[in-house]
Amino acid sequence: MDKADLRIAVLMGTKDGVSFIDEQLQSLLAQSHPLIDLWISDDGSTDGTIAIIEAWQSRWPKGRMTLVEGPRQGFAANFRSMILDRRIDADGYAFCDQDDIWEPDRLESAIRWMQAYDAKTPLMFCSRTATMTEAGSLVGHSPLFARPPSFRNALVQSIAGGNTILLNAAARDLLARASARTGFVSHDWWAYLIVTAAGGIVRYDPRPLVRYRQHAANLVGANVSWRARVSRLGRLFKGEFADWTDLNLDGLAVNRDLLTEDAAACFDLFTNGRQGGLFRRLAGLRKSGVYRQTLPGTLGLYLAFILGRI
Predict the structure, then answer these.
(1) What is the pLDDT of residue 210?
(2) At 287, which helix (H) or strand (E)?
(3) What is the pLDDT of residues 88-134, one digit of tens each?
C-alpha cells in the first residue's frame, strides 16, 4: 500500500487546553500526510476547549474528527481508554498532547520508516523533541540518546515522550491486549516496555519532530536542563522511581505470556535482583544487562540498586 493511502488515527487527550489547542490542531492540519482521523478524549474540561474542538469538527478535511468523554481519572487512564477503544481503526496510531506543535513531517517520517518492515511486526517510532516556552520560543532539546532502544533499556528508562510516538496496527493491538489487563504509569513508557518485551522494533529518531511546550501545568518535565536532570535523580533516590518500577513490573507480570523468552529471562533477573542483600542485587542487575542511555545514568542506576532505591 502506498504510504499516502495509510490512515493514521491521532489519539489526543485534552483537559482545559483552551490556551494552546487551536495551535496544536493547526499543526495537525499542516501534516504532510493526507489521511488523519482525529480522536479526542476530553477529560472534563471546564474552559472553552470543547467549543474549539466542536468548531474544528465541521471543517476537518483529512478524515473524521471524533470527540469522546474521557474517564476523568488522570492522563494515563485517559490515554488507556483510547488504546482500548476498538471503534478506533487505522493503519497507524499516534499519541498527541493538547499544547504541542508538530513539525509538518512528524507523521510522514514515521510512516516512511515503518514501510521497510513487515506489517505483522509490532513497530514503534519515537523521536527527540524541541522545547519551547509557553509563548512558543524555542529554548532547547530533549537529550540525544545514542544507545539502541531495547527491553533492557525500557525496564529502567522511558526514552521518548508519547507526543512523538507512532504505532503500527500490530503494536497497537499488542498494547491494547496488554493494557486490558492492567493500568500503567504512563502510556509512552508502557508502550516502549510492551513493544520491546514482545520482540517488536523501536526506532528513536534523533531529529526533533515535535515542539514540546514547557509550562507550569505540564505533568512531566522536558528534562532539558541540568536542574531538571538533577530533580529526576532526586526522585530516584527518594524511592519515587522504585514505585513506578513496581507498577511496571506488576503490569509485565500479568502479561508474561506476551514476553519473548529473552525478555522473560531479563525480567526475572532484574526482578530478583531488586531483592535480597547488596551482592545479590548487584549480581542480578549485572546479569540482567539493563542499562540507561548515558554513562552517568547507568552509574546512578547502580548506585540506586546499592541503596535499595529501585
Answers:
(1) 98
(2) helix 278-288
(3) 999 999 999 999 999 999 999 999 999 999 999 999 999 999 999 99
Contact call for residues 175 and 195 (beta carbons, < 8 A): yes
- For the chain, the farthest-separated pair of C-alpha atoms sits apart, in whole angstroms, at 63
Chain length of the chain: 310
Spatial distance between the Cα atoms of 14 and 42, rounded to a whole number of angstroms: 5
State residue 190 phi and psi, 5-degree precision: -65, -40
Q: Are strands 201-213 and 123-132 parallel, antiparallel or unpaired?
A: parallel
Q: What is the model's pLDDT at position 234?
A: 58
DSSP label of 91: S
CA distance 197 to 169: 17
β pairing state of 92-96 and 138-141 = unpaired
| SS3 label, residue 141 | strand
Torsion (CA) 265, 268, 269, 272 in degrees, nearest 10: -170
Are the beta carbons of 54 and 14 closer than 8 angstroms?
Answer: no
Cell numbers standing for residue 207: 531529529
Mind spelling out the 3-state secondary structure of 42-56? ECCCCCCHHHHHHHH
Which cell numbers in the block locate residue 258?
A: 506476551
Dihedral (CA of 287, 289, 290, 295) sign? positive
State the alpha helices, DSSP H only, in 99-203.
106-114, 151-154, 169-179, 187-197
Sign of CA dihedral 229, 234, 240, 242: positive
